[in-house]
Design goal:
Order of helices and strands of chain A: EEEEEHEEHEHEHEHE
Strand content of chain B: 25-35%
CATH class of the largest domain in chain A: Alpha Beta
Structural class of chain A: alpha/beta
Number of domains of chain A: 2
Number of helices of chain B: 1
Strand order of the largest sheet of chain A: 4-3-6-1-2-5
Order of helices and strands of chain B: EHEEEEEEE
CATH superfamily of the largest domain in chain A: Nucleotide-binding domain of ferredoxin-NADP reductase (FNR) module
Oligomer: heterodimer
Strand content of chain A: 25-35%
Shape of chain B: globular
Largest sheet of chain B: 5 strands, antiparallel
Structural class of chain B: mainly beta
């Protein structure tokens, strides 16, 4: 199977137009953009968004791409950071037809494509699910049969992203598990604690299976999970990680 | 240790600063291979730890020694690189 390299296109700011917005949770929404001359992307890549105030002040942040490469529009799912400079605008104000500056795609390290093989173990903390979702969507869109095990960790049920879509995708070799680290509703059948070694083994992160492991989330989550994985016997270099910070948004 | 390095709190990684570094190298920095001058660890740019302050400091994920310092100024970006870096050249 051919392995695609990211296209060598100069990284330029493009003016993207909002085609649609979708609410994903109480604090997150997906923004669908039309981007002129978008060069295409690999699942796991991100874009930079730049906001410029009238006085010339600029704020720039990175957001993971949620949509698979085959989609005609570019989708970002953005989580609101109350004290952030960019996410409140993206989550609460941006409307259909609005325009915004973005550049990308960026980053070939934290990417997966079918030629990379599997099995895949995807470990998401909060909105760290977004780039992993692009991988899962691409797996399905490309007809790949690589086994996937996805573990999503979130504080509470209302914070979970893409829940309906994930329940539809959880078949044909795709397993989806959840853990809620704070409150869990009555009748909750997932885990209700921080990710631990037992949980990782249960979702197939056993080094003997030689899975490709991707971890994305806030720094604390990524460090904790990567440490557990190394403790299970994984080679640190075989674990791909992507972190985002609380000050990011 | 450079006092400007870590005062901004917890680190991120090389992925988050890939946009600005792509301006510098005109290539995808996250896939550059680096061998650390201190511990010999071989890793990719995306796996390095990043600390944001007045500039960007990237550190080895294994031993924490400085891998790169990036200082944006008015009309230039000053880059100091340490260790052995290799960049794949692909025909376009």
């Amino acid at each position: 199977m051919e392995r695609l390299a990211p296209r060598k296109t100069p990284l330029v700011w493009r003016v993207a137009t909002v085609r649609d917005v979708r609410t994903e949770s109480a604090t997150a929404r997906t923004i669908v953009f039309d981007v002129p001359d978008w060069p295409g992307h690999l699942p796991g890549q991100h874009v930079d968004i730049r906001l410029t105030a009238e006085d010339g002040y600029e704020a720039q942040r990175s957001y993971s791409i949620a949509s698979p490469p085959a989609d005609h529009a570019l989708e970002l799912t953005v989580e609101l950071i109350d004290t952030g400079e960019v996410s409140p605008y993206l989550v609460e104000e941006l409307q259909r037809g609005d325009q915004i500056e973005l550049r990308g795609p960026i980053g070939g390290y934290f990417t997966w494509q079918p030629a990379d093989g599997g099995p895949l173990v995807l470990l998401a903390g909060g909105s760290g699910l977004v780039p992993l979702m692009a991988m899962l969507r691409h797996r399905d869109a490309s007809g790949a049969t690589v086994p996937v095990s996805l573990l999503v960790s979130a504080r509470a049920l209302p914070a979970l992203l893409y829940r309906d879509e994930l329940s539809c995708r959880a078949r044909d070799g795709v397993e989806v598990s959840y853990t809620l680290t704070r409150e869990a509703p009555s009748g909750w059948t997932g885990w209700n604690r921080r990710v631990d070694a037992e949980m990782l083994r249960a979702v197939g992160a056993d080094p003997q299976r030689r899975p490709l492991v991707y971890v994305c989330g806030p720094t604390g989550f990524v460090e904790h999970v990567a440490e557990l994985l190394v403790g299970l016997g994984h080679d640190p270099h075989a674990i791909k990680t992507e972190r985002f910070g609380p000050s990011g948004g | 240790m450079d006092p400007t390095d870590e005062h901004e709190g917890e680190h991120l990684d090389g992925n988050g600063v890939a946009g600005i570094l792509q301006q510098v190298f005109a290539a995808d920095f996250t896939t550059f291979q680096r061998v650390c001058q201190s511990c010999g660890d071989r890793n990719m740019g995306g796996a390095l730890r990043s600390y944001l302050g007045a500039g960007i400091v990237l550190r080895c994920a294994n031993c924490g020694d400085v891998a790169m310092r990036v200082s944006p100024r008015d009309r230039e970006i000053v880059v100091e690189m340490r260790g052995v870096w290799s960049v794949a050249i692909t025909s376009s």
